[in-house]
Amino acid sequence: MAAIAIVIVSHSKQLALGVRELAAQMVHGQVPIAVAAGIEDPENPLGTDPIQVYEAIASVFSDDGVLVLMDLGSALLSAEMAIEFLPEAQQEKVYLCEAPLVEGAIAAVVAAAAGRDIHQVMAEARGALLAKATQLGVVSRPLSVVSPITTNIESPTREIRLIVSNRLGLHARPAAQFVATAARFQSQILVRNLTRNTELVRGDSINQVTTLGVRQGHELLITATGYDADEALAALQGLFANNFGEDNVALHSPPAFHHEVTPTTHGELSGIAASPGVAIAPVVHYQPTHIAITEYHVDDPDIEWQRLQVAINTARQEIQAVFSQASLQIGDAEAAIFDAQLLFLEDPVMLEAAHQRILDNHINAEAAWQAVVDEVATSYRALEDSYLQERVDDVVDVGQRVLRLLAGNAAANLHLESPAILVATDLTPSDTAGLDPTKVLGICTTSGSATSHSAIIARTLGIPAVLGVDAQVLHLADGTIMALDGESGRAWVEPESDILDLLAAKQEAWQTAQQEARATAHQPAITRDGRQVSVFANIGSINDVQVAVASGAEGVGLLRTEFLYLDRTSAPTEEEQLLVYQAIAQVLDNRPLIIRTLDVGGDKPLPYIKVGFPEANPFLGWRGIRFCLDRPELFKTQLRAILRASVGHQIKIMLPMIASVTEVRAAKVILGEVQAELNQAGIAFDTAIKVGIMVEVPSAVAIADQLAAEVDFFSIGTNDLSQYVMASDRTNPRVANLVDALHPAVLRMVQQTVQAAHTAGISVGLCGELAADTLATPILLGLGLDELSVNPQSIPGVKQAIARLSIVESEAIVASALQQDSADHVRELISTSVTHSA
User: Fold this and answer.
1) How many CA atoms lie within 13 A of 111 on its CB side?
2) Were 457 and a residue from 157, 283, 432, 569 both cysteine, which residue would form a disulfide, CB within 3.0 to 4.6 Å?
3) 423 has which bridge partners?
């Protein structure tokens, strides 16, 4: 077997690593592949370095030959210069090849793995683009880059006919398996696609096999000539019988084959791949009403200022409602977009500027507000920081919302009667968060970027999206059939049958993978070395608990009760709360339900509770347990409802924002009073109900041993804990980058909390956003957490991540992570460690 090596030279490190990963998967790592790509310049990392190329060649050098594939320009010069650094004897064994980077690398590794010599490997690499062109119908002549077919008339010829049954036919990986298997035998293997009536081609050539265009249901004729013909055909038949192993692959990820959907099809539109998935449906246009502003003179500026204040207050209520709904539907991390919009509305500099314009110029509220919004948007656009530039969408979104309210217009309605692909110039974050994924099957816009908030929300909702397509799409009649592939960034107007077939196969594969992931989500999450970790759901409504159970939740680790108190003029009654808690417990069917008592105040004020004074630092203010202890009647009403609902269910009480032992004891005294009152009235409740606390304040970590003696469990809230540990507001873009739950300072706090809990013999969970980040899963396992509580849609992924890890390797990763000096270095450590162990 030849030991030929491949070196990939590119200006982009990410591109080169992606090509290497794809090529390595084709041959299961049998061929050495080195990468020399990018330069060490954070400002401009694109480029090539001759020394790096030399080191890459030296690292995989083989006397059988090294094939160097390059992208454009300086990559060629760097490669030529690198060869000069090599000893003369080695220089002759290195071959520079002009083949296309992606296709060439795949063809080369398959040929090398099949034992071809360096010249045959080069020929395969060079022929790769021609193979692609043939398959796409760009050229119709047979490939002539590989050796001609020869037959041995003295040897018997055997033949078989096979129907291709795997979902995506002989796409890249199955084709590679076919060629690698054919190459193991001495016999000459020839193959023909009977369905497409092709010529016979060589079965040991990846390029020729690819040109056959084999899809599911196609019939192939395979012949073998030679003494081991029967064995060769039996081995190939085994591949087909096993569907090329694709049923097992689909369990982990849907097969990606966007290389096969091509930019030469009639009616195709090219755009930005913003959210993966396939959609085929009629189009419906959405045109958000743009509020046109007319400036005019006003006699009474105070009335205009009042109008603007009313509109801003109403906008705040609307955004809070969007925020609440978005938290449930897309999770806390993405919903924080709307948290930022709320802060934008409260920006004193903006409000003062608008007020000043109205007073000084005697102009109407609409004109003053629009001018201020335009100024802020312009200032964001001028910034070099791409994160801050993306905030322009939010500025405009909020600005338009206030103008709409000033104009007295109703909110735009995006509810569709039947499933469709939404076509628009652009969608605001508010528009996107309100979409129903069962009705909006895809999004196609003429502007936008893959990093915009709208794109992030679309990905979280699982709606395929292609952005930045040609404006001609806006002229399509409603009802026109469109297909789009959010993975490759392409859309087709009235697609032809072959495109529909290809996309339908991809869609089916995707859906199957999703179903299989959901099925495994209902199994316990057990590490490779046998440790079971509970995976619970964070929820905020009755609807949410149904999604959680369907997603495989083993219980609810956090029920946010705030939804019962917000958007109303008075507090919910005991009976109202009782019905909701009972309904949620009923759906859980005896699974654990941890109810967090009311966590409002500070940044989440209740309109019917008078604070009496403004708070300069609401995150450090009157919130959580502090608020409840100051409003004992409100607190008692909630505790009575929880206790009454606890009969026959696994309900636990969790107290938020605990900073001292005194607070826990005070809350327990009130709970005892409520229990005594219920006893006296003869009302049943779970007398052994467990009480726990949220650990989200640094003082609670410092005295975790004392707190553990008072309660039955801990739940760590890393969202707030990260803010308090790093003294940084995560909604403030100037310091948001400091707020990272993977910072070693935060991880050490988590470690201290877990150790204190376990020493006291109580369990400890984590219900912050960190729990849903599968990159962090080895850290959380290694820290010894008993339970992770995440948003419902994250449950399948978290369970799969747990099943891939072991406690032993996770503890080793944690030991190193706690010694790192930044969150970035922790991430690098996890990525490297998990990759190596895999």
Assistant:
1) 32
2) 432
3) 285, 444
Closest CA to 168 of 93, 228, 247, 101: 247
**Is the predicted pLDDT of residue 254 greater than 50, yes or no?**
no
Per residue in 681-710, pLDDT tens?
999 999 999 999 999 999 999 999 999 999
Secondary structure string (H, E, C) spanning 692-726: EEEECCHHHHHCHHHHHCCCCEEEECHHHHHHHHH
Closest CA relative to residue 593, chosen from 538, 636, 655: 538
- Tokens matching residue 323: 């925020």
- C-alpha to C-alpha distance for 755 and 736, rounded to whole angstroms: 29
Answer whether 373's CB lies under 8 Å from 399's CB: yes
Q: Are strands 157-163 and 188-193 parallel, antiparallel or unpaired?
A: unpaired
Is residue 736 classed as helix, strand or coil in its secondary structure? Answer: helix
What distance in Å separates the CA atoms of residue 671 and residue 637, rounded to the nearest whole number? 10
d(C-alpha 346, C-alpha 342), whole Å: 7
| H or E element that contains 502 | helix 497-521
- By the 10 Å C-beta count (0-12 exposed, 13-18 middle, 19+ buried), 760 is classed as middle
Dihedral angle computed from the Cα positions of residues 765, 771, 775 and 778, in that order, rounded to the nearest 10 degrees: 10
Neighbours of 390 (CB within 10 A): 18
The three-state secondary structure class of 828 is: helix
444 is catalytic: no
pLDDT digits (tens, 9 = 90+) for 178-227: 888 888 888 899 999 898 888 888 888 776 787 677 877 888 999 999 88
- Cα separation, 669 vs 501, in Å, equals 67
Separation CA 4–CA 6 (nearest Å): 7
Q: Which of 97, 444, 628, 767 is catalytic?
A: 767
DSSP H helical segments within 27-85, as ranges?
50-60, 74-85
Instruction: Kindly indicate the confidence band of residue 250, based on its pLDDT and cuts at 50, 70 and 90.
Output: very low
Angstrom CA distances, 269 to 133, 456, 672, stand at 20, 22, 67
The secondary structure of 92-128 as a DSSP string is TTEEEE-S-HHHHHHHHHHHHHTT--HHHHHHHHHHH
Residue 767 a catalytic site member: yes
In 3D space, the residue among 366, 346, 428, 365 whose CA is nearest the CA of residue 392 turns out to be: 428
Residue 180, token pair as written in the block: 């690698």
Which residue is catalytic, options 453, 628, 649, 743? 453
